[in-house]
Fold this sequence. Notes:
The protein is an alpha/beta fold and about 290 residues long. It folds into two domains: about 1-90 and about 175-185 and about 200-280, Rossmann fold; about 100-175, no CATH class. The chain is built from ten helices and eleven strands. It has helices at about 50-55, 80-90, 110-120, 125-140, 145-150, 160-170, 190-205, 215-225, 250-255, 275-280; strands spanning about 5-15, 20-35, 35-40, 65, 70, 75, 95, 175-180, 210-215, 225-230, 235-240. A six-stranded mixed sheet has the order 7-8-9-3-10-11, with helices on both faces. α7 (about 190-205) links the parallel β8 (about 175-180) and β9. α3 crosses α4 (about 125-140), α3 packs parallel to α6 (about 160-170) and α4 crosses α6. The longest helix has 17 residues, at about 190-205. It starts with 5 loop residues before the first strand and ends with a helix. The structure holds adenosine-5'-triphosphate and magnesium ion.
Amino acid sequence: MTGKLVEIDDLRVAFRQEDGSYAEAVRGVGFTLGREKLGIVGESGSGKSLTGRSLMGILPKTARVSARTLRFDGNDVLSAPAETMRKLRGSRIGMILQDPKYSLNPVMRVGRQIVESIRAGDPKIGKTDAEKIAIDMLEAVQIRDPERVFRAYPHEVSGGMGQRVMIAMMLVREPDLLIADEPTSALDVTVQARVLDILDELVTRRNMGLIFISHDLGLVSRFCDRVIVMYAGQVVEEIAAKDLENATHPYTQGLLNCMPRINGSLEPLPVLDRDPAWLAETGGAK
Ligand SMILES: Nc1ncnc2c1ncn2[C@@H]1O[C@H](COP(=O)(O)OP(=O)(O)OP(=O)(O)O)[C@@H](O)[C@H]1O
Ligand SMILES: [Mg+2]
């Protein structure tokens, strides 16, 4: 037992193509996570969500997954019985999915979904108490009219509000590991700041591990402890968040250069013409 919350080595996810062959979308990803905030950045399609979903055991049915190691707190995700994974997902691992529309049950009121989430995590909490916790949490993620949202159906709340409902639903469970996939991208900056505060507090107070998937390098470098940079299904760089600005990998530098800056010019995102590992070693020297 290493005491690590997450251990991943050589994770691969492939999808079957029309000609029957398999194309790998995640190609040998590896990292470990303790009780800390790990950011995963990288352009669209680089495999960030699939990596998070692999850990949760919720990949699309058509995906073929393998790994030398894929463990949550010592549990082997690939060989664990479905029931064990269901229990872990109900209580100890939470994921805020990238698109909240598909995560909420459309025919169940928002409040009831949060209450069920609370009681799934701790069945000893009574219904009235769970309702109070739910409304408090809706208020904490800055929903101005929490009672109304509590009684609403998902289609009656806006997209950004739906995202906050999802966040509230995961936070009330206080999981040991939270995978947050673009959790704040549809939120305005003040709400975003509040959500980050709550996440930060959970990591510190509850000793939670957080995987924070985002396009926003600036945000990740300020908020996370460590950052993984993904490109075409691989990890090209792993770096302390505070050192991100001085990253040496050409792709990470490229990502940094195409971040909007005040008074700055925008560079196009680079396409690597060499093996990312070779570039990392040599810094791109010819
Ligand atoms: N259900 C699927 N069937 C076939 N291919 C898929 C499927 N889901 C993902 N892929 C492939 O895997 C790649 C990585 O997907 P993933 O969702 O992990 O990207 P991402 O890094 O999260 O991107 P984004 O920033 O846009 O959310 C995609 O570009 C796509 O080619
Ligand atoms: Mg994604």
